[in-house]
Specification:
The structure is a single chain. By secondary structure, the chain is an alpha+beta fold. The chain contains 3 helices and 4 strands; from the N terminus they run βαβααββ. The strands form 2 sheets. A two-stranded antiparallel sheet has the order 1-2. The longest helix is centred in the first third of the chain and has 7 residues, at about 30-40. It starts with about 25 loop residues before the first strand and ends with a strand.
Length: about 110
């Protein structure tokens, strides 16, 4: 039976994503108190707006990223993304990104 590891993490305003790309921005559009007032205490909810680049969070490099006619992430079936050979890159303390860190790669 395959073992899956959840790699998702919280996205917060100001977090670093990739050098040179913008940090995520989070804006509250309507909070609980404002929604109660707006809807005469008949409903309450929280609505936020997120502005982030595609490299934010757990990242899959879909063919569309590199090739104009490639499919984007929505065009990749889940079975193409799961149960694949894995590569673990321990970049702890690696400093600035480099093109290759062969000593940090294990399979």
């Amino acid at each position: 039976m395959p073992r899956f590891v959840e790699l998702s993490h919280e996205i917060v305003a100001g977090m670093k994503t990739y050098p040179g790309l913008p940090e995520p921005k989070v804006e509250v559009l309507l909070d609980y108190e404002a929604s109660c007032e707006r809807y005469q205490n008949q409903a309450e909810f929280y609505i936020a707006s997120l502005h982030l680049c595609g490299n934010t969070g757990t990242y899959v490099d879909a063919p569309r990223h590199r090739y104009r006619d490639g499919v984007d992430l929505s065009g990749l079936p889940l079975d193409r993304l799961a149960n694949l050979p894995t590569v673990l890159i321990d970049a702890t303390g690696a400093g600035a990104p480099s093109r290759a860190m062969p000593s940090a790669i294990s399979t």
